[in-house]
Specification:
The complex is a heterodimer of chains A (257) and B (250). With 257 residues, chain A is mainly α. Chain A is built from ten helices and no strands. The longest helix of chain B has 38 residues. The relative contact order of chain B is 0.12. The chains are: A mainly alpha (257), B mainly alpha (250).
Chain lengths: 257, 250
């Protein structure tokens, strides 16, 4: 497939050494910049020290991230509970598709953060507004991918179901659902990343719980080592969230050829 | 026939939405303004000129960062698509930064870049550049070997294979990259403005403080318009130049 370009052209050891040199180059440049250019930028080693200290020794960061993740999880669960049925409904019903397709598209491309001030007026500075923000961050990507999964099942699959005596609607629905599953899970994976990002945005733009306070206080006291440690931890959480749904997704991937 | 059914459904949907909106607005009262209040707030905001000024500022900041992201993403993405060395090297950074919540970088960026133009430039750039890089690269790596072989059969070797086969084949992804990058850039601009209370962000914070919900909703609606109209425009470009193959982006 990847005749030109693509990573397949490099052998595994070469690939890893290129990756390692990229990482080393970045860390080296960071170290040099921290030492010579900008007094505000903390060097990588200091960040690593603070990261270990704040997560393992004192646990401030761990506690802060756990608090934000609770909101992320609730909002994510709601996004799946609403997004999957809604996406399926849009795929099955033509009138609903005509009405909601442009709406979902528009909302998907809208900066959700702009809703933060309105959420504050409606729901106050409460966890409810945070969960709603996370939900809005995550739900549309679920709807769109669920719809895509249910939209065009290959006729061959339905015919095969017919041939083996599964002509009734229930079996056809099950076949379509099984075919849609990978796409639904793609939506779930992308939504997991968006939920984490939504939770971070909620901390910064609605009101600051432990995590928002951690980031904002570190920034306003010019403690960039502490700040960068927080950002690194959040990145790791994002990778973990997306990765764990990705594992499930790969297990059920349906390949046509 | 199909399009007329679509139009009928949409008209019915819009009618139901307006009726429901009116009823909810009437029942809840000031916290959820109905269509009439919304329209009145729109007229007021246009008359005062505050909205237009703020949106113009947002569009300018957006254009700067988006432009820079395009300038970086297209050559770099192409290099990634063509050379596995460049790809592996740069991808190490892209995958790391792609999953990073750019919003969590805000407290840091404001220390490093200040609150001037550099801040907006950096935030919008960081929001949009990675999606565009990945799409441009995908455009080149997903050119089927058969397409290239066909080109070679017709004499497109050496540089010709790039100019006549590879780059045109990557065009659908490139135009899609412009569209997705624009969407991300709008998000970046709004996030940056909310963080430093500028442009649209300043308006929204102000209306929130005094619970002027209709004005806030009008501003949000216009931010949506900015995002949707830009995306529509780029989709037209996409149909024009890459209509033979629609790229679905996740």
């Amino acid at each position: 497939m990847t005749a030109i370009g693509g990573t397949s052209a490099l052998s595994e050891p070469t690939r890893w050494s290129v990756r390692a040199s990229a990482a080393t180059a970045a860390l080296g440049a960071w170290q040099v910049a921290a030492a010579t250019q900008n007094v505000l930028l903390a060097p990588p080693l200091a960040v690593a020290r603070v990261l270990v200290d704040e997560t393992l020794v004192r646990g401030t960061l761990l506690h802060a991230v756990a608090g934000a993740l609770t909101n992320a999880l609730i909002g994510y669960g709601l996004a799946l509970a609403v997004g999957v049925p809604l996406g399926a409904l849009i795929a099955f019903s033509t009138p609903v598709r005509h009405i909601l397709d442009p709406v979902v598209d528009a909302l998907y491309s809208t900066p959700i953060v702009a809703l933060a001030p309105v959420l504050i007026i409606w729901f106050g500075l409460s966890p409810v507004s945070k969960v709603i923000l996370v939900f809005t961050f995550a739900v549309f990507v679920v709807v769109i991918n669920t719809e895509a999964g249910f939209a065009n099942p290959p006729e061959g699959l339905l015919d095969a179901a017919d041939v083996y005596g599964g002509g009734n609607r229930f079996v056809r629905l099950r076949v379509r659902a099984r075919y849609a599953l990978p796409s639904v899970l793609t939506g779930a994976r992308l939504a997991a990343g968006r939920a984490v990002r939504g939770a971070v945005a909620a901390e910064l733009f609605l009101y600051a719980d432990a995590l928002g306070a951690y980031l904002i206080d570190s920034g306003s006291s010019f403690d960039t080592a502490r700040l960068l440690a927080g950002i690194v931890a959040l990145t790791l959480i994002g990778v973990l969230a997306v990765g764990s749904v990705g594992i499930v997704e790969r297990r059920v991937r349906y390949t046509e050829s | 026939m199909i399009s007329s059914a679509r139009r009928r459904h949409q008209a019915a949907g819009a009618l139901v939405a307006v009726i429901v909106w009116t009823i909810i607005g009437w029942r809840i009262g000031s916290a959820f303004p109905g269509p009439v209040k919304f329209l009145r707030a729109t007229v007021d905001l246009y008359r005062s000129g505050a909205l237009i000024d703020a949106l113009a500022g947002t569009a300018g900041r957006l254009a700067l960062g988006y432009g820079l992201a395009i300038i970086v993403a297209f050559p770099l993405g192409a290099a990634m698509g063509l050379s596995p060395w460049v790809d592996t090297f740069v991808d190490t950074y892209v995958t790391t930064l792609f999953v990073t919540s750019v919003a969590s970088l805000l407290p840091l960026l404001i220390l490093v870049a200040g609150t001037g133009v550099g801040f907006y430039l950096t935030v919008v750039f960081l929001f949009s550049v990675f999606h565009m890089l990945l799409l441009v690269r995908a455009g080149l790596t997903r050119v089927k070997p058969g397409t290239r072989d066909a080109g070679r059969v017709f004499g497109a070797t050496g540089w010709r294979s790039y100019v006549y086969v590879l780059l045109p084949a990557a065009l659908p992804h490139a135009v899609a990259a412009l569209r997705v990058g624009y969407n991300r850039a709008v998000k970046g601009a709004v996030v940056a403005e909310l963080w430093v209370y500028a442009g649209v962000g300043e308006l929204l914070h102000g209306y929130q403080r005094f619970s002027q919900i209709s004005s806030a909703l009008v501003v949000i609606a216009h931010v949506m318009l900015l995002a949707v109209l830009g995306a529509r425009l780029l989709r037209l470009v996409e149909r024009r130049y890459a209509g033979w193959r629609e790229v679905t982006v996740q």
